Amino acid sequence: MINSIIKKYYDNFFSDKIIRYIIPYRYFVIIFFNIILFASAYWLAYYLRFEGLIPEAYLETMIRTMPLVILVQAGFFFYHDLFRGLWRYVSFADLQNILRAALMSMLTLIVFDFFLNPYLGYIPRSIFALNCMLLIILSGGARFAVRHFRERYRLQEAGDNAKRVLLVGPVSETEPIIREMIAHGNDYIPIAIIDPKTDMKGFRVYDVPILGGISQIVRAVEEKRVQEIIFAWPDAPEDQLAEIIDECKRSHVRFKKIPSLSEVLGGRFRMADVRDIELEDLLPRPPIYIEREQVREFIHERKVLVTGAGGSIGSELCRQLAQFEPQQLVMLERNENSLYQTEIALRRRYPELPLEALIASINDAPGLNNLLQRYQPDIIFHAAAYKHVPLMERCPIEAAYNNILGTRNLVQAALRAGTEYFIMISTDKAVNPTSVMGASKRIAEKYVQACNSANHCTKFVITRFGNVLGSAGSVIPIFKNQLAQGGPLCVTHPEIERFFMTIPEAVQLVLQAAYMGQGGDIFVLKMGRPVKIRELAEKLILLAGKTPYRDIQIQYIGLREGEKMSEELFNDGESAQPSPHPLIYYAVGSQESKDIWDRHIDTIQTIVRQGDREALLAAFQRLVPNYTPAANLSASQEGGYCNV
């Protein structure tokens, strides 16, 4: 009843019209209100000192000295900027300033009284102490009362639009979120906290109770009528994250998470950063970081060219390169639509970036030569390649034409243009390959590495990593499409597993490896532990609010052409050596000369021109001794669209 009356008064009094009128004069209003507080504190000091019966002599002294008291206290409050602070955001720092201003005022008034006593009258010493305490209480109390009133009734004002939320995470992580929710309570009302450590059970944070451990999530949702769960533990261990997700699913309410501090600008949490939990949040992989300043120095004011700039990796490369302000960014792509979309997005976000988006093919050797002679890039990132395993099994001539001969065309053009760095983006499928695509990329790796010699100024660097989530043709978009159609989710084998990383994470480490490269290096990105595709499908179904094998089925369709049960990161004969960056390894193995590999590529070129598939596969096995073509299972031909 009282709350509703206060709320009604709040709504009526603080109408938009009155607020608009007061705002231009709020500085003077605050000063006037503080003067009233100064006078009130001084009068109360006398009132309490003489128990409500102030003798006439002391009353006259109080009246004579009050202007001086107000002037001194106003001066110190002005010095500590206490007239400019927004009371609705008052904090402990403001209270500290009030304490300083009150104490300095008291000491200054004692000194003035010592000299002015004969003129203004005797002030009892206890008055100074009482006045100081009352000033702190009234000034601080008024400010915190305004903040409390605003936060409490703003939450009530949010009404039906605000969601009742349960926060899951340690108190150290949830405290700033609750503070933000209270300050901006239009969308969320914090109802309770679940602290995984349980040692804070029974305590309260901003009057929000801590209910206990993870096992209490379902009970808390039911008892507190929770509408949404916010997971506030970005760096939670994988096992605890999985347990929390399972409990949240049992509660049958929507759950979200806040991003890690590296994702939030400046490390400051904002309610706008709350988002749904995505599949990549559940993947076991180490947190990614790069040496941004060193990478910036490597890219800044250099001409950079990216092939395959419209693809998943290439477009993300362009986005991240643009942040480091290259002298010029040249984007090569033969798919006009994807290139156009990437160009529009970059020009909108980086209007000052010197950008050239060009339709070109790495299979056009003369065109590449002319293009590189014209733009003279300092750094080339080679992301253009055919990557679809089953399609390349059916079209090995095209795989060789693009992935091998196209790479040589680009290398030769880079050498003629005097390019300083050439970074080739490879794949874990080039490791002990069982597919045409993997074999073609391994031959391209060997050729690029062989081109690094003292006879050329160009430094050749290779980066190798596994699958990236969300890339074109990858498993996740296919799963999501199947999920939208009601299933089933089609998995080739229950035990098949892959390494996974998000596209931005992979590109960050590519840039780090490029900066570290000295020439002839093969850098292997640390991908965490491999994930079973079956588990990936199950987690995706759970995130959709459904139960695997009950609401959505998972169908096993058999291995596809050229597919391995598990991927590797190092070839037979390669050793893993640590690099200066803990998430990047060197792959150290034997190298052959460029002349030898030019002859090998000439042979492949002749075979490609003849269109001799069998001869090409034989050449692959001869040039990549650890290439063992996988048997084509009849089941791999079934299911069509269901293959992933």
Structural account:
The chain is elongated. Helix 8 (217-224) runs parallel beside helix 9. Strands 10-9-8-11-12-13-18-22-21 form a nine-stranded mixed beta sheet, sandwiched between helices. It has a seven-stranded mixed beta sheet with strand order 3-4-2-1-5-6-7, with helices on both faces. Strand 3 and strand 4 form a beta hairpin. The longest helix is centred in the first third of the chain and has 34 residues, at 125-158. The chain has 21 helices and 22 strands. It is α/β, with parallel strands linked by helices.
Task: Identify the notable features of this structure and list them briefly.
644 residues, alpha/beta, 7-stranded mixed β-sheet, 22 strands, 49% helix, elongated, disordered N terminus, disordered C terminus
Strand content: 5-15%
Distance between the termini: 61 Å
Unreliable runs = 1-16, 261-273, 631-644
* Major sheet attributes: 9 strands, mixed
Mean pLDDT: 78
- The count of strands amounts to 22
Global Rg: 35 Å
Query: What's the total helix number?
Result: 21
The largest beta-sheet arranges its strands as 10-9-8-11-12-13-18-22-21
Structural class: alpha/beta
Helix share, percent: 40-55%
| Tertiary shape | elongated
